[in-house]
Amino acid sequence: MTTILAIETSCDETAAAIISGGRKIRANIVASQIDLHAQYGGVFPELASRAHAEGISAVVSRALAEADLDYAQLDAIAVTQGPGLVGSLLVGLGFAKGLALATGLPLLGINHLEGHVYSQWLADDFSEPAFPILAMIVSGGHSELLLMRTHGRYQRLGGTIDDAAGEAFDKVGRLLSLPFPGGPAIEKAAQAGDKNAYAFPRAKTESAYDLSFSGLKTAVVRAVTVQPDDRNHRPRRAERQAQLRDDAHIPDVAAAFQDAVTDALVAAALAASRDYAASALFVSGGVSANKLLRDKLRQRLELPVYSPPLFLCSDNAAMIGAAAHLRYLAGHRSSLDIEARARWLLSEDVYAAG
Ligand code: KG4
Ligand code: ZN
Predict the structure, then answer these.
(1) Cα of 116 to ligand 2 centre, how many Å?
(2) Overall pTM > 0.85
(3) What is the mean pLDDT of residues 57-74?
(4) Ligand 1, atom 16: closest residue by C-alpha
(5) Which of 43, 86, 237, 272 is deepest in the core (most CB within 10 A)?
(6) Residue 304 contacts residue 281 (beta carbons within 8 Å)
């Protein structure tokens, strides 16, 4: 059975995993940097790459130890080549290239978004539906809607034209002084809130498959912070940018915001499911951990909706190993001089240019 060591360092998780047969997780180590970045309310790129450099060797060693394997028992080394923070990507890529050179194992540079798509294959009860499949990837850096024609072949239908869904959660979380990252914190706060307490907009985009969250974010800012012409609330100087109104009820804001974001995501998925004869919708990425999103997709779409187990929604290396598996079997190999690709969307010829 093919066994792949996978490495992921595209954002703020230093991760290594070992996957056999494309589906069996033999080890899955994720060293999160959340505590490091929480004090800045977001991922600080320079700190992220330094923490990857400090942690990567131990994370890879732990993965091998957990799987009780050595390099001679591996078939390939897979690594996230992009998209992501370039300084972070370079750490994983450099480490993987060094290992490939030292061990003689083939190297596979993998697209991180394809990893999120393939996280589905790692669920214990997954059984592959017929192609084509609609795939929605919703994370801190991306909101993409794709038609997966077969393994490794994607038609991009749409995506966000401004902020990613997770980015919107994080920005609103920061505004509400909730802990970083905003997604899980907003989901938790919303449990005690009334989604009808605020009327936030659902943006209309030119294409029904596209998304836009910047107008929603602005609407939240306007609704809950002290505005310059607000006579009853005089802004304190240092906080003039975003002083919350005394009457802003955080659980209500969280619930109304979460309702608006999930409605927008469901509307795009619904439009695509009506226009394309897909057999299923895959939703993955950090925001796919959101229960309201999962529930609404299942209620409103006529297709079966697949979401990965919660521990595979956010960034991990297991999904990179799963995506690498079929590429390995199909003969895909990367040269040792591949470069990090900060921007790299999934499209028909995703691996053609590098
Ligand atoms: O996939 P991911 O770990 O990293 C990227 O590739 O970006 O996604 C992280 C994003 C963050 O923006 C976080 O706030 C969001 O996923 N997130 C959630 C939830 N859990 C994580 N958003 C909404 N509800 C959640 N439960
Ligand atoms: Zn991701």
Answers:
(1) 7
(2) yes
(3) 98
(4) 286
(5) 272
(6) yes
Q: Whose CA is nearest to atom 3 of ligand 1?
A: 314
Instruction: Name the residues around ion ligand 2, CB cutoff 5 A.
Output: 139, 315
Q: How far is CA 95 from the centre of its chain?
A: 23
> Ligand 1 site: residues with CB under 6 angstroms?
11, 139-141, 166, 169-170, 181-184, 187, 285-287, 289-290, 314-315
Q: What is the SS3 assignment for 154?
A: strand
Would you put residue 279 in left (φ > 0), alpha (ψ -120 to 50) or beta? Answer: alpha
Omega into 179 within 30° of 0, i.e. cis? no
Could you identify the residue written with the tokens 């992921």?
Answer: 8
Q: In what order do the strands lie in the sheet with 3-8?
A: 24-32, 13-20, 3-8, 76-82, 107-111
Q: Record the tokens describing residue 75, joined without a space.
A: 């078939």
Whole-angstrom Cα distance, residue 107 to residue 91?
Answer: 15
CA atoms within 13 A on the CB side of 154: 26
The tokens describing 268, both together, are 């795009």
> Residue 156 C-alpha to ligand 1 middle, in angstroms?
21
Please report which helix (H) or strand (E) contains residue 80, including its range: strand 76-82
Residue 172 reports pLDDT greater than 90:
yes
- Give the pLDDT band (50/70/90) at residue 230: confident
Q: How far is the CA of 268 from the centre of ligand 2 (A)?
A: 20
